[in-house]
Automatic annotation (TrEMBL):
The active site is at 120 (proton acceptor). The keyword Zinc applies. Binds 1 zinc ion per subunit. Coiled coil: none annotated. Its main location: cytoplasm. PROSITE patterns: SIRTUIN. NCBIfam families: PRK00481.1-5 (NF001755). NAD-dependent lysine deacetylase and desuccinylase that specifically removes acetyl and succinyl groups on target proteins. Modulates the activities of several proteins which are inactive in their acylated form. The lineage of its organism: Bacteria, Pseudomonadati, Pseudomonadota, Gammaproteobacteria, Oceanospirillales. 2 residues (Tyr-67 and Arg-70) present in a large hydrophobic pocket are probably involved in substrate specificity. They are important for desuccinylation activity, but dispensable for deacetylation activity. It is found in: Cytoplasm. This is NAD-dependent protein deacylase. Substrate binds at residues 67, 70.
Amino acid sequence: SSLTIFITDMKASTYKRIVVLTGAGISAESGIRTFRDADGLWENHRLEDVATPEAFARDPQLVQRFYNDRRRQLSEVEPNPAHRALADFEQRFHGEFLLVTQNVDDLHERAGSQKLLHMHGELNKARCLLSGRVIEHKGDISADVLCPCCQRPTLRPHIVWFGEMPLYMDKICATLEQCDLFLSIGTSGHVYPAAGFVDIARQAGAHTVEINLEPSNTEDAFAEHLYGQAGLTLPHFLQQLL
Ligand code: NAD
Ligand code: APR
């Protein structure tokens, strides 16, 4: 009816610049384990053994095996309704939109997301330790896989380890400072700088919403909270914004 169209148009004009942050929780329903939940990755591995530059220097094979296993898993999982809802929303939303993910899987892009920054790197890329060049790389990384530029076994996973600098920080912070809606989805809020994005958005005057299975470490910083499985809550929540 004409009334429905009127209300829809009013809502579409409410927010013009949206930033979304996602974490491991958004991929949980696809079958990828999170880090800090019960049976999370950090329950079964010491992150100091597999996710630091020091670990890689000490035992590169152990670190490569950890990421090779995770890279192989990508072919066994599919985007879930939460990934698809974000991609669908981006396509239909008329304002500015940026999706920042801490995830190193490729489920957002496989769902169709376009404006997407992987601030903690990507499993499907490798980086040459000598040249710094980043290449697409879908298979295992091992001692007999050579860097295409150096022809030597100098590849490491293109993953931001603990103590390393997250990627795209200038672009992300500049966009947060301009946003009017900030959504945080499936992240425990334990890892900075991502856990501090809500404060930047709030200082910019944005409305802030936490969408998570349970209250996160930074729940107090958010104006609105929506708890439950993201695959169930997010499609409906985003539909309401259009
Ligand atoms: P960190 O949180 O201090 O910083 C992360 C990285 O981002 C650092 O390399 C830092 O240089 C960089 N950084 C910070 N602000 C930045 C900005 N504005 N622009 C660009 N880069 C910036 O350190 P960390 O060692 O990566 O640890 C991350 C978090 O994880 C810590 O809060 C720590 O408490 C937590 N942690 C959790 C566990 C666990 O859950 N088992 C274990 C270890 C650490
Ligand atoms: N829907 C919504 N949220 C969920 C779901 C779900 N189906 N399942 C789990 N969650 C929530 C959990 O309640 C938890 O708060 O997702 C969050 C996942 O938190 P973490 O495992 O800590 O993952 P994340 O916040 O992405 O970790 C940040 O830490 O180890 C580093 O670099 C790694 O990028 C990672 C960073």
